[in-house]
Amino acid sequence: MRRTRAFIPTTKEAPSDATLVSHIYLSRAGFISQVASGLYSYMPLAKRVIKKIEKVINEEMARAGAQEVELSFVTPADLWRESGRIEKFGKELLRFHDRKENLFVLGPTHEEMMVDLVRNRITSYKQLPLNLYQIKTKFRDEARPRFGLMRGREFIMKDGYSFHSSYEDMDREFDAMEAAYKRILTRLGLDFRIVEADSGAIGGTGSKELMVLANSGEDTIAVCDSCEYGANVEAAKRSGRSHIPQAPEAEFNKFKTPDVKSIEDLENFFKVSGYYTIKCVAKRAVYEDGSEIVLFFIRGCDNLQEKKAQNAAGALDLVDVGEEELRELGLVPGFIGPLDQTKAKHVIDNDLRDATAMICGANEVDYHYVGVGMSVLSEAYYADIAEVNEGDICPYCNGKLSFTKGIEVGHIFKLGTTYSAALKAEFLDENGKAQPFVMGTYGMGVSRLVAAIIEQHHDDAGCIWTKEAAPYAVNILVSNIKEEAQTALAEELYAELLAQNVEVIYDDRKERFGFKMNDAELIGFPYTIIIGKELENGVVEIYERKTKTKQAVAKEAILAKITELLAL
Ligand code: ATP
Ligand code: MG
What we know:
By secondary structure, the protein is of the alpha+beta class. It has 14 helices and 31 strands.
């Protein structure tokens, strides 16, 4: 591509709402253009990057025996009714009627559509397993679209679905997909971690997320300092704590505690660690058919993990509640404890099971109980609802957990029969008995990957594309376009590289060297061949974006050198 013909509108201005470097650089370097909230147009450079990512995905899927299909983006609402997800997805589904008043949904994911494609076509265990995927635009009317391509409303996803006659076979395919995803991210030059994930309301027996490590990541992941364990904090477990404070000694008693409301107040008042206090977090749990107040009890030194809490309550969502709503139930805000006599539903953290010497609200203004033994509540509903803390002990070894930030670029999921059973998609097993397909589902955020690569690979000057993802591998930059010898060599190299199928762009603009170089830095081509003054001595320079280093190369050796660098 000749730069004079290319549509690469670079600019100094970043969008006013852009906070993430990927959003800023991809906009400034002329990759993407925002159309409306969460909607972006891909300009030529972005399109090239997306195609390169797709190529890597397609190659690895082919290697793993998955087949590409393409399902319609517009999906009949009836399918979403059949699976019951029309309510669950709520406002993220964009619905509309056609001219015949039929209701449709813009596909946010395609489980229903894929099951519908396969049902009644695959009818025998002999035709299984089957793994189908597509790379396709998705639409989710996200509540808070943000961060450019990171969380769009319209975005590109690779979504794959596998069908099996047994759980064992699904497990095998799940492992194969995990390995394929690993290869994809490795080839794209990303530093990532595969972590245990929350399997959410859809259920399923296991799910893992692929996290690109970056400080700007929206997800917090807990990683072990000594073994391979890593998990999204939404799902992270611990086997214990590195330190358990000395227990206070007290008989069961009610204590006057004027104005002592927060955990910190309690710690100061009783000179006791938050570990021996009980914190109550009240939420309104929203269900498909209504809502109710749920009281979540955890140790004072812990924080409620909302995703775990939501799963434990079996709720679609948890929303904050006002003090007035609590009073209406007979609760006393600031002094709520698990020994209350109200009808409010309780969920108590597993770590409080059989706890002794606890201090908790007495459900009376200005009173707390001390010396509480939780065994009196043995019938209560216990669940894992607390967030692990840094320093807690790994569930698999004696290592300690620490936190790091990640960008979720992929999610693989053992679905089981959730959708096949709901949509009555069945096959005949070896005994001629009809069974629902056992399924796995494998998602990867293609457009999010474009942003994730930049979040991990950039510097103050702009993007630093990894080789497998770069829009162009080589940029030819002529320092002075008026020098005939320089342009002649550039033309020659350009033709030669094109002939060798190297992805090359030739900056033939009549601009100053510094201007063109800044542009190249911002866009982030892996290599720039700089043809300048030294050509008089038969020498040109190869500039490597990643290391910001130049090496002088004899003009005759340039092709060989570039080929060698690209092959590395
Ligand atoms: P998130 O927790 O970030 O909302 P999700 O759990 O809703 O993600 P999945 O339904 O598992 O995501 O979708 C598969 C993949 O699609 C994700 O791993 C992510 O990479 C990508 N993805 C999901 N939502 C978006 C979005 N709004 N914009 C861009 N990519 C997205
Ligand atoms: Mg989401």
